[in-house]
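## retry 2 of 3
previous attempt timed out at serialization; input unchanged, resubmitting
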Amino acid sequence: MKATAHVQVENEWVKVTEWRFAPGAETGHHVHGYDYVVVPLTSGVLRLEDGVGASEAQLTSGVAYARRKGVAHNVINANGFEFRFLEIEIIKGQAGLY
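## retry succeeded, writing output
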């Protein structure tokens, strides 16, 4: 089952997407083309699969983290409930922003 993505903002310098994962839903394998920030809207566990193996990440609602472009993985909801987060991709630097 696929996670669903709803783009909230998209312009020349940023893209903000709300991701919703039903229990067991996944993004499918993908590579991030931009630096990005994730802001969990739910607390819980996500399973991350990359080319080497798998790991689990405990996320807390409202506690953001950032990653550089090039991350390649599949993200899976390991919870028995819907998991949601905002993904903020930094497409182009702006003075004072990047």
